[in-house]
Amino acid sequence: xxxxxxxxxxxxxxxxxxxxxxxxxxxxxxxxxxxxxxxxxxxxxxxxxxxxxxxxxxxxxxxxxxxxxxxxxxxxxxxxxxxxxxxxxxxxxxxxxxxxxxxxxxxxxxxxxxxxxxxxxxxxxxxxxxxxxxxxxxxxxxxxxxxxxxxxxxxxxxxxxxxxxxxxxxxxxxxxxxxxxxxxxxxxxxxxxxxxxxxxxxxxxxxxxxxxxxxxxxxxxxxxxxxxxxxxxxxxxxxxxxxxxxxxxxxxxxxxxxxxxxxxxxxxxxxxxxxxxxxxxxxxxxxxxxxxxxxxxxxxxxxxxxxxxxxxxxxxxxxxxxxxxxxxxxxxxxxxxxxxxxxxxxxxxxxxxxxxxxxxxxxxxxxxxxxxxxxxxxxxxxxxxxxxxxxxxxxxxxxxxxxxxxxxxxxxxxxxxxxxxxxxxxxxxxxxxxxxxxxxxxxxxxx
Length: 447
Description:
This protein has helices at residues 14-25, 40-45, 47-68, 80-105, 156-159, 176-187, 207-219, 272-275, 310-324, 354-361, 409-421, 426-430; strands at residues 5-10, 30-33, 108-110, 114-118, 121-124, 127-136, 140-142, 168-172, 191-196, 223-226, 228-236, 239-246, 251-254, 256-259, 263-265, 279-280, 283-284, 297-299, 339-341, 347-351, 365-372, 386-393, 399-405.
């Protein structure tokens, strides 16, 4: 049977874009459909605009530090609307870059919604399209908890559409999204209260890393309420009145509420049942080759039951193309995926946490860590402590995990990921000569 395309991709986010372009390089005829904007959540409602907000918020702190280094001048004022305009202009540019890259690769871009008619047929706008193979790369969406009045809460999507900064905001959720927005908004001068139903923030990260971030945020004036959540949100003349429950039982009045309580696969409207594609816990179930229960239908990225990170989606998309059209039989290794929290203080991690390592290696785990004040802060009136921690298998001396809190943590940890994958030992790190003066050199002298 002949088809319109060798491959049809639904979703032009990192995973879909990577798969489409690489599959076309192997000679496949490829089309990709996107009902929103090219680039997916990362470019339009996530990583990129959020990181630009991180940069914008940091200038307030850097302007203060500049005085300690001899700089003087009139106090600068932040213009939210001017920043938003510049940020949106950059996002639009990136959208066009993605569309142009698809065209250069010979991939047809269809700006419309796609849904299954049957296992090989899709309704794309007013067109009916058939494909030999279909890749789902539709990403995820923010979710809200079931709380009375939750319709008044914003999600991370709406945070990029704010017309003005709130004076007071409450954030529900102590994961990396809640932490990052808390840090950003505090940098802009907002009064921030963050609450989390768990005993600590950043669940899943190393406990010492999470504690260091917690201390840093509190030092900046962010109120963090653990073992606490909202029971109701009610509009009032001053904004919204929140009823809290758990460890902190009181009411709180704020201008805005952000629900940062997780994300779920964006499967609405795909008509998966018409293709008999099975979903596991509302995510698309796939095997090591990103194949669903249908042998010709695949899925990558946040719509699956694997790691929800942009670089992971991109790697999955490339591995799919290599295996399916390049005949290279390649899969993704999830053991050493680095991750970062783009807050101030910044945090990054790769490999096992101490808790995970002890589950697997027991009492043979050895941990080495230090806290230091980077040289930059020696002239300022701020005390900013950095944390560096190694988790090591005491039997083999192999490093199992590396964790850091402090300036440039993401860049430092990212550079160490290859070493971890290659099985670097604590002894090898001890014998390495670092760059002085730098924070990263402390990795090579931990005792």
